[in-house]
Amino acid sequence: MVGLEATTTEGERRLVSARLTVAADGRTSSLVDMAGIATRETANNRFSCFAFFKNIPDEDRSRSRMWLLEPEVGYQFPNDGDTTLIAIMPLKSRLAAYKADPESCFTRFVEALREAPRIAGAERVSKVMMYARNSNLIRGAAPDGMTLLGDAAMTSDPLAGVGISWAFLSAEWLVDLVSEPLLLGRPLRAALRAYRRRHWWELRAHHKTIADLSQGGELNAIQKLLFSAGTRDARTAELINDFLARDIGVAQFLSPAALMRAAGVNFRHALRAREGHARGADESLTEA
Prior knowledge:
Number of strands: 13
Order of helices and strands: EEEHEEEEEHHEEEEEHHHHHH
CATH topology of the largest domain: FAD/NAD(P)-binding domain
Number of domains: 3
Structural class: alpha+beta
Strand content: 15-25%
CATH superfamily of the largest domain: FAD/NAD(P)-binding domain
CATH architecture of the largest domain: 3-Layer(bba) Sandwich
Helix content: 40-55%
Shape: globular
């Protein structure tokens, strides 16, 4: 039997015993600290600055939009209650300026976006908020009788928006694996090891992709290949959507078939553009 030992406000020490202790208390998990679990941390070179708006002129509330500015990022998310989240992720080298005047910096960034949301004519219904404590974290193995869930186990760049979805997903895996031994009074060690293996196998590569992108550099050649092809080909766009929605993993997203299709899409696009340029030049010479 394991559990927690706590001290009341009156100084009384109490032992709370349990067959399984689940740390699901976020990236700043006190349970992780108390258990002495190792943390591997990767820097995030962007920070978040965001606000909520209503009644943005000419807004299409049926879709979200994202600006990959390499290295900075902008988002427009229509939400419930007729609100829209406008979020930007500048480089941390600009954090001091944003802290000094968040509203002006935020507004200038948003209004400079291509086909920018018209926030000047909208109603802002929140403060301009910032969040910079956003490093990527992976926790090591928990001691016997304990396991980790959600951001307590793995915290990824909020740009990807995976936190709550991965928490629910891993909670489902945990319940599937430990419910039977818990109900039957069997040892939990094998089930908890199986949970940790699945958590690692299913999420580790995706987390690494997110962490690499959070360094604030340009997209790599493969990312540029796929994202550019996604603007020109419905099947590639669907593949990107499935990956960003976490319906498929990195292996399927970067499969040879997907990369070959994207390369073909971009090659045909470049060829058509070249032919169109040549026709335009010929027509200009003819007119001359």
